[in-house]
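Late entry, written up from scratch paper. The run itself happened at the end of the previous shift, but nothing got recorded in the book at the time, so transcribing now.
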Amino acid sequence: MKIARFLLLAVLCLGTASCSVNLKKGLVVHSGFEKDARDEGRNHYDGKLLGGAVISDDSAVGESSVYLDGQGAYVEFPAGKVYFEGDYSISIWVKWEECHLWDRILDFNQDEPMSGNAVTWLIGRPAQGTENNLWFDQWVMYNDIAVESILSQRNVPADAYLGYNVKLGRWDHYVLVYDSSAENPNGVQQNTKGEDVPYEGKVTLYVNGQAAGENTHCVKPQDIPTMANWLGRSRFAADPFFKGWMDDFRIYDRILSPKEVSALYALGSR
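Output as recorded:
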């Protein structure tokens, strides 16, 4: 598998003097979990492992990954920073040991949930469903009111589903790309004052280098800091903690192209 991904990266660069893919451009955060949760991106937003452990016997990229035990371990990034504004992309390798409803891959939120700007990547299930679906959610402030991106739109049920059902016990590479200018068919929703709030853009999910689903229940992130910035933990205290492994976590302040997504996948060592 390592050879296959090396060949994939080689194909991406074929016919050019040097590879045209620049995986450092727009890199807001990059934690490879080689020794800790140090940020190798431009901002040096170093994370902290709170109960988690860096392990060297199982990784997707490089020599090690972080293991979270599902009993309270998580990774925390600095509060009061702006991680998402306008277009963005998130890349991470994940290997689930167990999977539960409302598990979080990522929750960059406020001190109180549902109170302001937030980006959340989680496990959800449709009504009466049993599969572990990848879901996505955002919150923004609109006229001083916190608005959720997946509220019902004029009596049409909201849908946070990203089109992928999680597989346990294997490394998978997930990339979430938010394009704020993509065509959106959903029109507007209403906040608690009855004011129209426009849906904007589209989220695309890539799994192992291939587009796997999308969602248009989106609202554009704003230049507002988030205060509780976690991998593997939810802002809602009752939700479970993530159990499994994570590796090579990245946030970009731009849209990654399919070629760049494939190049990130090709970095995987297993």
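Residues 2-266 form a domain with the Jelly Rolls fold (CATH 2.60.120.200).
(Scratch paper discarded after transcription.)
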